[in-house]
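I have a small job for you when you get a moment. Can you supply me with one protein entry, sequence and fold together? It will help me judge whether the discrete encoding reads sensibly. Write everything out right here, beneath this request:
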Amino acid sequence: MSVFNLTLVLYYNNPNPATMATNSFILTFLGDVMLGRLIDQLLPNHVDSPTDARKAAHFKSEDPSLEPTKYTPSTPWGTTLPLLRTSDLLLINLETSVTTTSSPWPNKEYNYRMHPANLAPVLHAARVDYTSLANNHILDYSTEGLIETVWTLKEAGISFAGAGENTDEAYKPAILYLPRSLQEYHSRRVDGEKVLSTRWSQQEREVLDAPGTGYPVYVYSASDHPQEWGATVPNFHFIEYSPATRERLRKLLMRNGSAAPALKIFSVHWGSNYKWCPPDHIRSLAHFLIDECGVDIVHGHSSHHVQGVEVYRGKVIICGCGDFVDDYVVHEKYRNDLGAVWRVIVTGEAKSLVLDRLEIFPTRIDQFRANQLDKSDKDHEWVTEKIRELSGKLGTAVRNDTGDQGQILIDIR
């Protein structure tokens, strides 16, 4: 059944008016979403942490908007929420463990966790479809905390990759779908709410289940740190910059054969904190993922600040998305409070998806919420010029004009 004969079935439920008239789709990527520590204490449910509770009480005493009746599950997304909800797919890096387990990983400087009861309300508020779990905080409360995180995501109906209950679950891709109504059908979730298959008629289910319907999107995830977890936790997808790792990745990403997806994404937590430009070994791995593993989009994160973009052979490498929301102290030089919403616009052609352009909407973390910056804001200019400078060093040009919401534009084809 051709994807082009499914317009009525696929779009009747919560259509995206921005993409409905054409065969184009919006894939939105965010960097580190850290909902633990003080943010967790501000939300309706929170883990038992007297130290974090005292700090949160101080901020609440100075800002009434942080009171429990006002700081709701939608609040961490701030003014970016309408933009996020226009996405056909929304992918994030979840930079915290989701657990009530109280035993942190030993001898680790920072350990983050959020209450499991907060996860679904917060992520569903923005219509998050996918979370990367391969990062340096997912095991902050050891394997027990990771397993509870996985169970909580499964209960919420949110896809994940990079860590899991076993090695296979950590390494295998999350499978998402376009258009969005097909994603909702397969996940049995509409705006976060569970729905039964009977929501769709028998005829509609036959169409939606037919081979070749829609566009499958595969998302893999991995991290190059911490090495200790790579050596001791088999259900954490750790990578190195070695020939052995490349061979393993090639086999993993290319084993689908004739059932290749329409789009392949590699979400990766890599590199050192607070470095403007990725080192050569990271760029080389990104090129390898595209050249030999069929990856279309490299979704990089970990640096804590925005990095440049490289358009490479019609594909895109987002080196570092930056922090999206957290409770961190602001670094004066690297401005880790300034991030972005990164949107890749793709167009369906036959059974594949082609990358058209990247749109970058600068954001700023303010009082534990992410806010979209107006073009007139000086921080919008800072983000724009920084991305222009850093992308230029990677051989990629940023357009001189901006979009209708002040978004930075990079052509991919």
About this structure: Residues 1-5, 10-21 have pLDDT under 50 and may be disordered. The radius of gyration is 20 Å. The CA atoms of residues 26 and 358 lie 10 Å apart. The longest helix spans residues 378-393.
